[in-house]
Design brief:
The protein is α/β, with parallel strands linked by helices. It contains five helices and 16 strands. The chain starts with 12 loop residues before the first strand and ends with a strand.
């Protein structure tokens, strides 16, 4: 049952009206759509560490466990009817098979009380995962919005992932960097949720004007808080 949007005034969440639809941005890296009782996360990139480690790159392989810990936390905070993972949930086509039994059990535990768990196809994982709770989808239409991994041809506004937006700022001599939400009039780009993900800096240069038009706003995630920023 959809829940009414509630006013959000602290720094850990920010309620905005995206294309006229109430949307709660969360400093943990997800977005909550009250009208559809839906939590949205994007670009988990599970098993990215094991992908690089298998190719001789000396990186830690604990990223999946940390991503799932954070996912469990934000799902518990909202207890939504639906969770949408907005593509690139797995870093590559064989990542599902590299999940440890403990992480498979952890993911199943996170999803067990969710009525509708949706794995949107991404460019890293173009097919729905086999043997996991939930269903696959190329895209999803909810509350007048289109949810997809990358930009799609659609009449209304879109929430997408893929670009891993981040900001780099200088404030009073200090350098500040972090992932961010980027909201234009008709397209909102989610930050990457995964613990081991890079990012594309948001500037006034391509591809951002092509994605968002001439006017947009960033919501920087820094020190577990959200900070609205205008460039």
């Amino acid at each position: 049952m959809p829940r009414p949007a509630e006013a959000v005034s602290d720094r850990t969440r920010s309620q905005i009206a995206f294309a006229g639809v109430p949307l709660v941005l969360d400093a943990r890296g997800g977005a909550y759509l009250p009208e559809a009782d839906t939590l949205i996360v994007s670009d988990l990139h599970l098993e990215k560490g094991s992908y690089y480690a298998a190719r001789g790159v000396p990186v830690p392989v604990c990223d999946t466990r940390e991503t799932l810990r954070r996912l469990a936390e934000i799902v518990a905070a909202y207890s939504p009817a639906r969770v949408v993972c907005l593509g690139d949930s797995f870093h590559d086509r064989s990542a599902r098979g590299r999940l440890s039994s403990a992480d498979q059990a952890g993911l199943a535990d996170i999803a067990k009380d969710i009525s509708d768990w949706v794995w949107v196809n991404g460019n890293h994982d173009p097919e729905p995962p086999d043997g996991l709770t939930g269903r696959g989808a190329a895209r999803l239409d909810l509350a007048g919005l289109t949810l997809a991994h990358q930009p799609v041809e659609a009449p209304g506004a879109q929430i997408i992932g893929h670009y891993h937006p981040k900001l780099k700022l200088r404030l009073k001599g200090h350098k500040i960097t972090g992932p961010c939400f980027v909201a234009g009039a008709k397209r909102l780009v989610m930050p990457a949720f995964g613990a081991f993900t890079g990012g594309l800096r948001v500037t006034r240069d391509a591809p951002w004007p092509d994605l968002l038009g001439t006017d947009w706003r960033q919501y920087l995630i820094f020190n577990d808080q959200l900070w609205p920023v205008s460039l």
